[in-house]
Amino acid sequence: MTGERVPPGQKVIERFPRLDLGIIPKFDENKWRLRIEGSVENPVVLTYKEVLELGQTTVVSDFHCVTGWSRLDNKWEGILFKTIITLVHPKQDVKYVTVLSGDGYSTSLPLSELMGEDVLLALSLDGKSLTAEHGGPLRLIVPQKYGYKSAKWVQMIKFTVQKELGYWEERGYSDTADPWTEDRYSR
């Protein structure tokens, strides 16, 4: 049964490993801000409290790491990315979104791929607040992509007309990051 849910080259694991650049940003609820800007009608800077007030949704999805492991049935709770789109109103020519993290990490995705009902800015995992080691307080979750597209410690979301390559994409990883075709590296 899991074979239909697990992409080729992946092994199912139970424990959620920590993989990152080795820097865990400090979180101070009173100082933390989420900037949403770029080619939008309504750029905003939100406090942590304001992010919590955006309304939360629960999504159960699988997580696939480019290093070859998958963790099934992760219960994420957070803000649908569609809510962010509605909040800032991207301009007509926007095609991409760049997500920047508190540790200097970045990734970019087509706007169309962030419109899914399972794409969210997660605040909790499996009923508990997202820990710092797993991207807390706020992490992007894009289940249909390898995990490097699900940026941890999100602090800025930038809507753009042109594609901006992210941290791993600049280093040779695939920009499409499709686990079902094992698209791990640029060709």
Question: How does this model look, in words?
Answer:
The chain is mainly beta and 187 residues long. It is built from 2 helices and 11 strands. The protein has a single domain, classed as Sulfite Oxidase, Chain A, domain 2 (Alpha-Beta Complex). The protein is 7% helix and 33% strand. A hairpin with a 4-residue loop joins strand 4 and strand 5.
Q: What would you call the shape?
A: globular
Which sheet architecture does the biggest sheet show? 6 strands, mixed
Q: Please state the structural category.
A: mainly beta
Q: What fold name stands as the CATH topology?
A: Sulfite Oxidase, Chain A, domain 2
**CATH class placement:** Alpha Beta
Rounded average pLDDT = 94
Number of helices: 2
End-to-end separation in angstroms reads 32 Å
Low-confidence runs = none
Query: What is the number of E strands?
Result: 11
Instruction: List the domain count as a whole number.
Output: 1
Measured by DSSP, the beta-strand proportion falls in 25-35%
Helix content: under 10%
The SSE string, one letter per element, is EEEHEEHEEEEEE
CATH superfamily: Oxidoreductase, molybdopterin-binding domain
What is the annotated CATH architecture? Alpha-Beta Complex
Radius of gyration using CA atoms only: 16 Å
Summed up:
The chain has 187 residues and is mainly beta. Helices cover 7% and strands 33% of the residues.
